[in-house]
Amino acid sequence: MVLKVSNPNNVKIYTVSGSGSRSIPDWLERRKKRVLKNDPEWTSRVELIQDFEFPEASLRIKTTRDGRFLMATGVYKPQIRVYEYSEMSMKFDRHTNSENVNFVILSDDWTKSVLLQNDRMIEFHNQGGIYYNIRVPKFGRDLVYHYPSCDLLVGASSHEVYRLNLSQGRFLNSFSTDSTKGVNVTIINPAHQLFGFGTEDGTIELWDPRSRSRIGLLAPQLPPSASSSMNLNNSFQITAMEYRNDGLSLAVGTSTGHVLLYDLRSAKPWLVKDHQYGYPIKKLSWYDDVMGDREKSKVISADCKIMKIWDKDNGANFTSIEPNTDINDFCVVPDSGLIFVTNEGMQIGAYYIPSLGPAPRWCSFLDNLTEEMEENPQPNIYEDYKFVTRKELTSLGMDHLIGTNVLKPYMHGFFMDLQLYEKAKLIANPFAYADYRERIIKEKLEKERGSRIRVKKKLPKVNKELANRLLKSSEKKKDDKQQGEKSVAVIVDDDVINPLKDRRFNELFTNPDFEVDENTTEYKLIHPTIDSDEDLITQINKKNGEKIKDEPIRKTQYLQKKKGMKSSNRKWDSIGEMSMTFKLN
Description:
This is 16675_t:CDS:1. Helix content is 18%, strand content 33%. By secondary structure, the chain is of the alpha+beta class. Strands 1-2-29-28-27 form a five-stranded antiparallel sheet, with no helix packed on it. Mean pLDDT is 79; it is low at 486-492 and 531-585.
């Protein structure tokens, strides 16, 4: 099973539907469909909701108030699809005569809805199908339903907001705005039912439903830095609005890609957020923390390219979702971290963000599913390629391939076929495997040697440093001898290897008269740079490309050779040790 995971701003986003899987076209033959069982990408796909797609593109999406159903519209052909959460599948689909602009669900479930179509028609749907339709004078752009008065408000390409009373079944007097072009957005405050109309002239008009008159006017002004970077070809318009449940906060999206946050008690926004793309804002939503912490509340804003989730107080980015196709609308499942996104692709995107909220109750398995996907991450798309820099190409002798189809430029280097890279590396360094094998064997032997249980031997009171050096030297000789003759049973005589047990040298470690004081001037003159016996330098000579057996030498002789000093055969007797000869060529 493959689950696409992205990590923008260190926040994990799991794609449980949409760009992470493919769709089968309706015209694909049944015989070709059977071939897909051998396609690993198709067989390992994740489908949160069955048939969660449209033939061409999805337009609008909303969840019902009872939290049991999801309604979406799309093309082509224009249609409505209703999905049931408990069954995680499509309940039914219904075709319409024209494309949908926006819709409103009137009932708590899916049974009653109103659709605003792009041919000036308003369609009323019930369980059986289209119940009634009526035409508005101008092309509609948005609609909203006012439950206390049963008024359906329709913003259109005129200065009027049309009122269709569903209780009386007739049009009432329209709200006349000061806009000379049209009304793009109509919203209703959920706390005190204040109407809000966003116009094409770039103004926001606030209307009281009781007096049916305008009580406020907002003219958003962008900061000078934002105004200077604004595309002059786009007129400043209000394209999206959303009230918060507290009744005081208002989010406003503009055609220049900016989001302004207002307190209704002030005419100036407390925060201006720039999407950095310059595309009109399509949808806004306030996301309150599941635990009720108002300080953690966030704002979700989307244009056609990206959907951003950010902090309402300082505008800091929390995370972002950037689908492969243009965004049309989105819907957040209440009290969860699951977001549905309609787009210009066939699949409706479904994104789960655990940091934002838990999984909904009807798909609580998402939490366990994401944990399993973390254990088996999706392989890299470049798993068959190796990234190499220009310096590595030169060392491999392949810099002449730059500019050919063998190397694919990427960032500060190139991608090349992994098998070709392995062959070139083997040719450039034929002893690489031998060196690697030797290093692994050495590390394994050192690990085994360190895991042995060693008895801490008590050192004598006289000449402790000399006794310690002799013990370490004897243990090393013993280990080397046993490692070199694994197949033969070796009996090691401790008296031969350990000079401390030799009776001839007992007084050297018991009689204080034989103690060697290494701090005296005479000792330092005789041994100017002597170190412990285990601190030896390995001399490696390479002759004809082969390594010869390492010879242990003392640091004094190494320094003499480095300075160009002649060194002859030198013999010395360490007290109680065998005479050793070191020859430097």
